[in-house]
Amino acid sequence: MSLGSILSVARSALSHQQLVIQTAGHNIANAETEGFTRQRVDGQAAYPQRFPYGSVGTGVAVDDIRRQRDVLLDVSYRSEASGYGAASLRQELLSGVEGILGEPSDDGLAAAMDAFWSGWSELANAPTSAAARSVVQQRARNVTSLFNTYDARLTATRDQTRLRLENSLVELNALTDEIARLNGRIVSAEVGGQMANDLRDQRDLAVDKLSKLGDLRALPQPDGAVTIVLGNTTVVDGIHATPLRIAATEGATLQLATAARPYQPLQAIGGSTQAMVDFLNVELSDVQEKLDALANGFARAVNAIHQRGNDGTPAAPYDAFFVDKTTDGFAPGGDPHDRPLPANTVTARTIGLFSAIDADASRIATTSSRTARPADNDIALALAGLRTASRVTVGGVDLGPIAYTLVDRSTNPPGRVTQSGTSLADFYRATTSALATNVKDAESAATVRRTLTEQADQRRQAISGVNIDEELTTLMRAQQAYAAAAKVITVADEMMQSLVNMI
User: How crowded is residue 163: how many other Cβ atoms within 10 Å of its Cβ?
Assistant: First the structure.
């Protein structure tokens, strides 16, 4: 082995340690950079020289500058992130609905309906009292106002969530476009066999962000690209991205589709995007439909009794009490769940006090008697009894159960069913209780998912994240190795001088 070979070995060591120092500095510089993955120089012994007496090493060769990344930990983190994105958003949306209803409350709908029944009890005790009639009139206005207000707020929530979904799709499509673009740059950069580490970090960060919006699978390809599948739909294939949009379907059910096939709805894609779709289609719709059913059942039950009454005027009109305020009418056969709403249908949005009664409290009936200004109170008593009744009765006459038209989601497609045997108060209590249970479940799920996501991220960061102490240790070791390699060059130079002097 010649002195030249010794110098070559030393030079390879110097070059290798320079690269180690540069890489450690790069890691330290990006310690706070989002999505950055710690890098490490992988070296191997250079091909040795063979001599009759054996093989002699020729130094070190750089094998690769490799990202410290575990694919399985990435998969675990993205799965948990998708679940947490869905759970946390569901909790937020359901909590918003619970806040709108605000039960239990002293000024909520339950309290207003209870005050309305109490007003009828007071009127039954003083059936000829104009003041008692005015109390019933005002409390009826309060009930209808709350129905209207709740519906307006729930509708605003629907509109806001729909807009939020559209913005989420814009973000989702932007991320898939970015991943496809980075696929192209990575494939081009790695043609020579070297890893495009920083570009891969950018792509992984985009995939991480996308995982919060949908439950995805990232499938690596031999050329360095990655294929992204959301649900059952490939949204990134090489350098091509497939944008998603709200499906162009008829009916109330909201679905997603690809922009190229807007009439072919996709299966569930998971993540926060799917949470918004499910909230709009199921959870919010369920609350709105039950509120409509309550308003409709409330109006029908009160009207069934009041229209048998007499306000004391000869040839009394037997007024309806609650009506569709948009038409000042009421259609007994109207279906509150049709969209768009047909005329003469009472819902939470349209319920109102009959204009004649709203203008003149003396039109409120307390008795079914036909005599002028009677002091009887069978109508008032029957209406007061609706506080707890599940059936409509007047003076011992059974007029039938209080009915609620609901959507049966156990069928496909969902159909409408009529539910009865429940009082108005119990029906509303069951609605708010079910909502409270869903909120509690969502809170628990979000807490668990947040913990699991944080744990998955910690496991991943333990491998991929930059540890300043470790990098400083690497720098010290590289510095010592560099100094040692320089010493080898010094020794070789001294040996060379000794040989020259001998000549």
Answer: 10
Contact 440, 94 (CB under 8 A): no
| Identity of the amino acid at 397 | V
Partnered with residue 156 across adjacent β-strands are none
Q: Could you write out the DSSP letters of every residue in 59-104?
A: -EEEEEEEE---HHHHHHHHHHHHHHHHHHHHHHHHHHHHHHH--S
Rounded Cα–Cα distance for residues 151 and 144 (Å) = 11
d(CA 455, CA 183): 29
Number of Cβ atoms within 10 Å of the Cβ of 373:
13
How is residue 283 written in tokens? Answer: 């959870």
Contact 354, 328 (CB under 8 A): yes
Domain locations in the chain as residue ranges: 3-68+466-502, 70-464
Q: Among candidates 124, 104, 107, which has minimal Cα distance to 115?
A: 107
Could you give the C-alpha distances from 122 to 144, 307, 445, in angstroms and in order? 20, 20, 47
Assess contact for 65 and 18: CB atoms under 8 A: no
Q: Quick one: angle between helices 197-213 and 271-278, nearest 10?
A: 20
| CA atoms of 121 and 302, how far apart (whole Å) | 14
Dihedral angle over CA of 491, 494, 495, 498, nearest 10? -160
**Among candidate residues 355, 329, 299, 366, the one with its CA nearest the CA of residue 124:** 366
The predicted-structure confidence for 433-469, as pLDDT tens digits, reads as follows 999 999 999 999 999 999 999 999 999 999 999 989 8
User: Does an H or E element contain 275, and which?
Assistant: helix 271-278
pLDDT in tens, 309-324: 876 665 555 678 998 8
